[in-house]
Amino acid sequence: MTGKTIVVTSGKGGVGKTTTVANIGTVLAKKKYSVVMIDADIGLRNLDVVMGLENRIVYNLVDIIEGKCRKQQAMIRDRKLHNLYIIPAAQTREKTSVTPDQMKDLCAELAEEFDYVIIDCPAGIEQGFKNAVAGAQTAIVVTTPEVSAIRDADRVIGLLEAGLLKDIHLIINRLNHRMVKKGDMMSTEDIISLLAVPLLGVVPESEEVVISTNRGTPLVHDRGSKAGVAFQQIAARLNGEDIALDMEQKVTIMDRMKRFIWS
Amino acid sequence: MLKAIRRFFGEKASSQMARQRMQVVLMHDRMDIAPDIMEALKNDIIAVLSRYMEIDKRTIQVDLEQGKNYTALISNVQIKRVYRHSMST
User: Fold this and answer.
1) CA distances for B54 relative to B47, B48, B82, angstroms
2) Neighbour order of strands in the sheet with A199-204
3) Is the pLDDT assigned to residue B22 strictly greater than 80?
4) Distance from A68 to chain B by nearest Cα, in Å?
5) What range defines the domain where residue A240 resides?
6) Predicted ipTM of the assembly
7) Which of A204, A239, A243, B53 is deepest in the core (most CB within 10 A)?
8) What is the count of structural domains for chain A?
């Protein structure tokens, strides 16, 4: 059995990489796949708090790589799903304590045991990024509809392609449909035409995301959350399921009237 | 309402401004990453031109010019002789 290794990256910080990893991992585990999520952000770990597992950490990623513990000892099992694990990052170590080759070996070993290995990449394009990307076959680039996030995403896509990682997918996070309609935010089409990478899904801006991270329970556990549904569809597409991308372009009569007055 | 009035007087939507600015910025960024791509582009231009005319390969210059809202590729090359028919490579 060889699983898929997927890195979630963005260049810019704070666009929702960790939230994306937590939600995609949880959906895939709910679909009965075995999933391990690696927090590769050494020195600034967060995946553990987003998953609500911060109290259970004993060993971490650097401990595995330095041979201080077995892989199984550092893997923390999710509270709800028994086929979902995280490997936390070290909090008091340097990014240089791991090399790309070591990450590649670790990911290959984990892919033997798990259906999905999902890597949470740190922001930036230095050593930490190189480590996180080294062991991945597929990359998910997360961006928001802001110029700074898009520019950084484009840079990261260029670096991934130069590093011969060609299987790249895009997630647009925090899209505000109301602002797009008013012409105050770049639309999904605008962003795709700029970045020229296949779209995996669009996550609407939502207060529920903050609430779920406050609780330490991924959004996809609740029903009826729009952002949660978006993550479910994204994970399903990643899993090869054929789910149409709805651009949510429901144009009502009111919109037409407004547009008529506006133009 | 104020915005509607401004739009009426021809102010662009901010999303369109963002899009146009990003088109220029990304083009520039992508060109910045790879001097080897510039070199390859130069060689391809020489190859295409050589099918139609004899050029002085040493004089070719390929530059990107950054305008306020465009990026242009500007190439200067000395032509020695133009062929009557295109030479198939």
Assistant:
1) 10, 11, 6
2) A76-77, A84-87, A35-39, A116-120, A4-9, A138-143, A167-175, A199-204
3) yes
4) 40
5) 4-262
6) 0.75
7) A204
8) 1
Contact at CB, B30 and A158, closer than 8 angstroms: yes
Q: Which of B7, B22, B30 sits opposite A147 (nearest CB)?
A: B22
Locate tokens 């585990």: which residue?
A29
The answer to whether A102 touches A67, Cβ cutoff 8 Å, is: no
> Does A190 contact B15 at a Cβ distance shorter than 8 Å?
yes
Measure CA A64 to chain center: 23
Dihedrals phi, psi of A99, to nearest 5 degrees: -115, 160
User: How confident is chain A (263 residues) per 10-residue block, as mean pLDDT?
Assistant: 93 96 97 97 95 95 95 96 96 90 96 97 95 96 97 95 92 96 94 95 94 93 88 95 72 58 57
Residues of B in contact with A154 (CB under 8 A): 26, 29-30
A188/chain B closest Cα distance in angstroms: 11
pLDDT at A252: 56
Beta bridge partners of A38: A87, A119
pLDDT tier at B38, thresholds 50, 70, 90: confident
What pLDDT does B37 receive? Answer: 78
CATH value at residue A143: 3.40.50.300
* B44/chain A closest Cα distance in angstroms: 21
Please give the structure tokens belonging to residue A233. Answer: 């569809």
Instruction: Check CB contact under 8 Å for A194 and B26.
Output: yes
Distance between B54 CA and the closest CA of chain A, angstroms = 35
Contact A162 B33 (CB under 8 A): yes
Q: How far apart are CA A39 and CA A18, in angstroms?
A: 8
Distance, CA of A159 to CA of A133 (rounded, Å):
10
The whole-number pLDDT of residue A108 equals 96
Hey, which residues does A116 pair with through a beta bridge? Answer: A4, A35
- Beta-carbon contacts of A96 under 8 Å, excluding residues fewer than 6 positions away, are A127
Tracing tokens 């950084």 back to the chain, one arrives at A152
Task: Give B74's pLDDT tier (boundaries 50, 70, 90).
Answer: confident
Within 117-176 of A, beta carbons closer than 8 Å to B belong to: 147, 150-151, 154-155, 158, 162
**pLDDT of B33 strictly over 70:** no
